[in-house]
Design brief:
307 residues; OB fold (Dihydrolipoamide Acetyltransferase, E2P); 2 domains; 22 strands
Length: 307
């Protein structure tokens, strides 16, 4: 017996919750209207953070430390910058020992200074309204045609929907990818290998939607911690949505036809929910279910008799 997987293509109101990584410094305001691909939050990855007991160093109470800060929480600081200061004639001060950012002020009067590793941005994976915006998460609601997938990897990205292959049984070929595909979400391939995925990212393809991929091909790209449940990230890495199986499978013909009819529409891969959102009116397509996928007992791919 195989293992049955059935996934859907449907239209409706979507709610997307983006859990932000630590270090968010700016977010879009609540009730703002955004489009997929718009930057909705920015922040910093830190190598390490160091806590300084500002209340003790400044000889003040924890409640008064905020009023003694010379920089705002979230601001970058250069080596030698006075972060906080108290007193006049016999002044006490906290000075940044190296370039970084004032990350946090805690309730006990401690300031947390972070050493910057890299900056990150979060893109909206859907058109809609921002319902919540804070350093923890961004919540956006909006209508879309949505294809639910199996697992997704890399950051969420938006682009123009574009067919990658002639037939849903064809694999994604690295030689068929060039800069003409930049900014596009390439869909329909039966299988994408590691070389094709790396090539797609190098020429500026926004994302790849394919039926299957070898899990071993993901490790050199996303690292040893990559998971079969998906690995959303905020780093500059290829974006891929796997719709059917790890190993080998064909792209569902019915879904292939529906996406082909919407070629040229704006779309986005939401790696947090392993979904493809296509922004087209409700009458532009018809709902559909994946053809049931029969997997081999060892989950190595689609059974030959299930084709």
């Amino acid at each position: 017996m195989g293992c049955v997987v059935a996934l859907n293509w449907s239209y409706g109101e979507r709610v997307v919750s983006l859990r932000l990584p630590f270090g968010a410094s700016s977010m879009v305001p609540t009730d703002a209207s955004v489009q997929a691909g718009n930057i909705v939050a920015r922040g910093t990855h830190y190598r390490a953070t160091r806590r300084v007991d500002a209340a003790k160093a400044l000889a003040s109470s924890p409640e008064t430390v905020r009023g003694l800060l010379r920089v705002r929480v979230g601001d970058a600081v250069r080596e030698g910058t006075i972060v906080a200061r108290s007193g006049q004639r016999f002044a006490r001060a906290i000075v940044a020992a190296q370039d970084g950012r004032l990350v946090h002020l805690d309730a006990a009067g401690g300031v947390h200074l972070g050493t910057i590793r890299a900056e990150w941005t979060a893109q909206a994976p859907i058109d809609g309204l921002v319902r919540r915006a804070d350093p923890d998460r961004i919540v956006i609601t909006g209508p879309a045609w949505t294809l639910a997938g199996l697992a997704a990897f890399g950051p969420s990205r938006a682009g123009v929907l574009s067919r990658a292959v002639e037939r849903p049984v064809d694999d994604l070929s690295p030689s068929g990818l060039d800069v003409a595909a930049s900014g596009r979400i390439a869909f329909g391939a039966a299988r994408a290998g590691g070389e094709a995925l790396t090539r797609a990212h190098a020429v500026g393809v926004a994302g790849v939607v394919c039926a299957s991929i070898s899990f071993r091909a993901l490790v050199p790209i996303y690292g040893d911690d990559v998971s079969a449940f998906g690995s959303p990230s905020w780093d500059d890495a290829p974006t891929i949505l796997v719709t059917r199986a790890f190993g080998r499978a064909t792209f569902d013909r019915e879904i292939f036809a529906r996406l082909s009819a919407l070629e040229g529409a704006r779309a986005a891969i939401d790696t947090t929910t392993a979904s493809l959102h296509v922004f087209a009116p409700p009458e532009a397509s018809e709902p559909a279910e994946w053809r049931d996928l029969m997997l081999e007992e060892d989950l190595s791919g689609e059974r030959a008799d299930g084709l």
